From TrEMBL, chain A:
Organism (species): Streptomyces avermitilis
Name of this chain's protein: Nitrilotriacetate monooxygenase component A
Superkingdom per UniProt: Bacteria
GO molecular function, one term: oxidoreductase activity, acting on paired donors, with incorporation or reduction of molecular oxygen
Stored NCBIfam families: FMN_nitrolo (TIGR03860)
Annotated positions binding FMN: T97, Y151, S222
All residue ranges annotated as the Luciferase-like domain in the record: 24-395
TrEMBL record, chain B:
Luciferase-like domain ranges (all copies): 56-325
Disordered: annotated segments: 1-20
Keywords recorded for this protein, A-Z: Flavoprotein, FMN, Monooxygenase, Oxidoreductase
Name of this protein: FMNH2-utilizing oxygenase
Protein species of origin: Streptomyces avermitilis
Length: 458, 420
């Protein structure tokens, strides 16, 4: 035998505010009612997934100075929804995206520690830094943080939160009713943090949670982001779900670990991935084309083009040719609060290339966006998809995937029923949860276990 | 529909009366750790090692729902519990450490069906934007049973946990000094701003904003989403919320109030005020003051419930209740005193007292169980049947939402009214 098979990690991203969620399909249900979240979480747990994942955006996106109205809009509060989901699941990990720019460490640490208690050890935090002052207009501090300082604050934010998580040892609640001793030590939870971004001290008021600390995710792609992940995250939510890009990212990030005294298996790489399943590969490809047309309406195609052109293109016909004017390279951006703004680093070159490709293929604006826009990662029969996912993981393009179905809430059902059993047959995915906490599912050490004496008194 | 000016608070039908004589009482229970007596955790019935588990809270709220109570409140704070007014007390003989109240409420919501869930929220150090969507989400996960209890904090240690502001050290006796009054007035003004921002965010989506119009490709009608443009002294919020308008439109806002400054907050901003009268005359005076504040705030036509808080030791025999209180006091090392009146006696005696006090114009009571494991079942299985026998309490839940239980109609959206 060659090297042993890697076990695949799978997670479910609730499809919500993004340009891949199809809301026009008759099967598309509510993206906000709790019943949708409960259905989605139960499917993920039935399929023995590692965790459920929620993204976050703290301001509604705008384009051309108006609220963007073509994609799904509206999402719940991350902490409240994940904690409610803990009531309808037993084992599924619960991962929430919470930004470090428009929050305070004491409050966020308290919420994650509470979630970890109330879910018996299933909490994870995807630390993001968020975009800009635009988002800050919803918060007390306003848009106070320059771009370059976001990771410096994120780093200190996470370090501070960890100090708070560690401020209770785990054996401090004695609760001796006879002796009348509740706390072993009156200074339980004491902390002092004096840094560049936070000068805080006092006592944390949530005793140590089942996982000690929530599992830490990072999502962000710059060099700063990668270093941040290598230094302190347990997992990365990345965007590279093709084989070559995935392998390059994997090698790069895992290569940074040694610098921080960490080993290869202490950081999992879990890219976002979409999928379309059919009975046969051909049927799946046909279905995928339909899904793309649902994702990219004529109006959406124009808006997508505006990201690159950075001007109002509403006068153009989506079924007509591309604009022959050039992108506006001015300071302002037509779209605010969207990832796509940063996707095209050289708008002039992109516009030229797109015009050439459209002309060569006789594509309309909408055709072009459908052809060049982000695509489904895995398209095929269940057997093909299972095989592809497995081969990607074995080839170190990732340690697993965070799957984003394009329909809520039933978009995961077919995957759970058809692909998961095939992965289990291949011996690369669990048939039962081996442990109870998210750390158990991910094969990550419990911080408690690292430090003898930090065990919960029994 | 009734037209509501954009800046005003949500209105509700005046016929949903707050004058109690003809209608049934409303009953809530205030949950806090093992109970409100500091030695509660030492009673055999207490489960002090389980205070941080979901099962513990689910058990309590389910019990309260069995008793058909209107809602539970869940206490909270951004520092360790303390017997001192503004600082930690360093004690190790009382319950210390607690979970986030909003999250406890969210955790029990899917396990219950009728009872209202009202967590405490500290306005002083948190973000109205975050809290607005958290309570809206609680409303979604409970399908219309969410509220919040807004609280301010002048504690120095809690301020140091955030590192953004400082407060002077003071004792409860200093509350009436000009310096402290200035601090509290400012905190309550900020809390009123906070509630206003939160309420505007709940209204920042009109109910029918989601249109899913395939023909035009539009998921929402953006003209039905509104910037709230709140500008206050301590913060500003642009909006709209990221969370659509919650099922109740406006979840129920409540606040505990002991004095004039907080009475103003209740009059201006709340749907329910909790007050702490010690007898009927005091209750009358407090109700008058809050009604005056309500009128001054231009809300005379709105339903504003005033609940009296009572801490209760309940037993089938009055002597047993008194003996229990003494036993707990001696374990604690001193007699229990607090802001609210302490009642010791039987469920029937408590029913007598509640029916007497309601004459002051109270619409209900928030009972604080001295020992939650003991006094909560006494409320649900003793007091409630007693009140039912007297036709003073519901025999079945008559509504599925908290507003419904409280006789509050679903408010019109201030922005929708303004644009029509
Ligand atoms: C795959 C991926 C997912 C992300 N998800 C979110 C999100 O849900 N919410 C958010 O505010 N930012 C999100 N971000 C943004 C990052 O936190 C970060 O602000 C952004 O990527 C800029 O950092 P960078 O320059 O390191 O990429 C995401 C980024 C990536 C790459």
């Amino acid at each position: 035998m060659s090297k042993p098979l890697k076990q695949i990690h799978l997670a479910a991203h609730f499809p919500g505010v993004n340009n891949t969620t199809v809301w026009s399909d008759p099967e598309a249900g509510s993206h906000i009612e709790f019943s949708s979240f409960a259905h989605f979480a139960r499917t993920a747990e039935r399929a023995k997934f590692d965790f459920l994942f929620l993204a976050e955006g703290l301001r509604l996106r705008e384009q051309g100075g108006k609220i963007y109205d073509l994609d799904v809009v509206g999402r719940p509060d991350t902490f409240a929804i994940l904690t409610a989901l803990a009531a309808v699941t037993d084992r599924l990990g619960l991962t929430g995206t919470i930004n470090s720019t428009f929050n305070e460490p004491y409050e966020v640490a308290r919420q994650f520690a509470s979630l970890d208690h109330l879910s018996d050890g299933r909490a994870a935090w995807n630390v993001v830094t968020s975009w800009d002052a635009f988002t800050g207009e919803n918060f007390r501090r306003g848009g106070f943080l320059p771009q370059g300082e976001r990771y410096s604050r994120a780093k200190e934010f996470l370090a501070t939160a960890n100090e708070l998580f560690d401020s209770w040892r785990g054996d401090e609640i004695v609760a001796d009713q006879q002796a009348g001793t509740f706390l072993r030590d009156a200074r339980a939870g004491a902390f002092v943090h004096k840094g560049q971004h936070f000068e805080i001290e006092g006592q944390f008021n949530v005793p140590r949670s089942p996982q000690g600390r929530p599992v830490i995710f990072q999502a962000g792609d710059s060099d700063d982001g990668r270093e941040f992940a290598a230094a302190g995250a347990d997992a990365i939510f990345s965007r590279y779900s093709t084989l070559k890009e995935g392998q390059a990212f994997y090698t790069d990030v895992k290569g940074r670990l040694a610098r921080y005294g960490r080993t290869h298996d202490q950081l999992l790489i879990l890219p976002a991935a979409t999928f379309v399943l059919g009975d046969t590969d051909a049927e799946a490809r046909e279905l995928a084309r339909e899904v793309r047309r649902q994702q990219v309406s004529g109006a959406t195609a124009i808006k997508h083009l505006e990201f690159v052109w950075n001007r109002d293109l509403s006068a153009y016909d989506p079924d007509g040719p591309l604009p022959d004017i050039d992108p506006d390279l001015g300071e302002h951006t037509i779209a605010r609060g969207r990832a796509q703004v940063r996707m095209y680093r050289d708008p002039l070159a992109t516009a030229r290339e797109w015009r050439e490709r459209a002309a060569a293929n006789n594509w309309s604006i909408r055709d072009l966006v459908i052809e060049t826009g982000s695509r489904q990662s895995f398209v095929g029969s269940p057997a093909t998809v299972a095989e592809t996912i497995d081969s990607f993981v074995q080839a170190d393009a990732s340690d697993g995937f965070i799957l984003v179905p394009h329909i809520t809430p039933g978009g995961l059902d077919a995957f759970a029923d058809t692909v998961v059993p095939l992965l289990q047959e291949r011996g690369v995915f669990r048939t039962e949860y081996e442990g109870t906490t998210l750390r158990d599912h991910l094969g990550l050490a419990h911080p408690d276990a690292d430090a003898p004496g930090e065990r919960v008194a029994s | 529909m009734a037209s509501t000016p954009p800046s005003s608070l949500p209105s509700s039908s005046p016929s949903a009366s707050s004058t109690p004589s003809s209608s049934a009482l409303h009953l809530a229970v205030a949950l806090d750790g093992a109970g409100w007596h500091p030695a509660a955790w030492r009673e055999p019935v207490a489960r002090p090692r389980e205070l941080l588990t979901a099962g513990y809270w689910a058990g309590l709220v389910t019990e309260a729902e069995r008793g058909l109570l209107d809602f539970v409140t869940i206490e909270d704070g951004l520092g360790l519990q303390s017997s001192h007014f503004t600082e930690p007390d360093g004690r190790t003989d009382q319950v210390r450490g607690r979970l986030d109240a909003v999250l406890i409420a969210a955790r029990v919501a899917p396990l219950t069906r009728h009872i209202g869930l009202v967590p405490t929220v500290v306005a002083t150090h948190t973000e109205p934007f975050h809290i607005s969507k958290a309570i809206a989400t609680l409303d979604y996960v409970s399908t219309g049973r969410a509220g919040l209890r807004v609280q301010v904090s002048a504690r120095q240690n809690e301020a140091a946990h955030f590192g953004r502001r400082t407060f002077p050290r003071f004792d409860i006796e200093d509350l009436d000094t000009p310096a402290v009054r200035e601090v509290t007035t400012d905190l309550f003004d900020e809390a009123a701003d906070y509630v206003e921002a939160v309420r505007r965010l709940w209204d920042s989506w009109e109910d029918d904003a989601e249109i899913r119009d395939v023909a035009t490709g539009r998921f929402i009608d953006r003209d039905k989403l509104h910037y709230i443009d709140f500008e206050g002294r301590h913060f500003s919020v642009k909006g709209p919320s990221i969370t659509p308008r919650p099922p109740q439109g406006q979840p129920v806002v409540s606040a505990l109030a002991h004095q004039s400054t907080p009475f103003q907050l209740v009059g201006r901003s709340a749907d329910i005020g909790y007050v702490t009268p010690h007898d009927l005359d005091q209750a009358r005076a407090i109700v008058d003051e809050i009604r005056a504040a309500q009128t001054a705030a231009g809300r005379a036509g709105d339903t504003l419930h005033i609940f009296a808080d009572l801490l209760v030791f309940l037993d089938d025999d009055p002597g047993t209740a008194a003996a229990r209180r003494e036993r707990l006091d001696s374990l604690a090392g001193h007699p229990y005193t607090g802001d609210a009146r302490v009642f010791t006696g039987t469920p029937a005696q408590l029913a007598d007292l509640l029916l007497e006090l309601r004459q002051a114009g109270l619409s209900g009571f928030r009972l604080r169980p001295a020992v939650v494991g003991h006094d909560l079942p006494q409320i649900t299985r003793g007091l409630v049947p007693e009140l039912q026998r007297r036709d003073a309490f519901r025999r079945a839940y008559e509504a599925d939402t908290l507003r419904g239980l409280l006789g509050l109609t679903r408010p019109a959206n201030r922005y929708a009214a303004a644009t029509v």
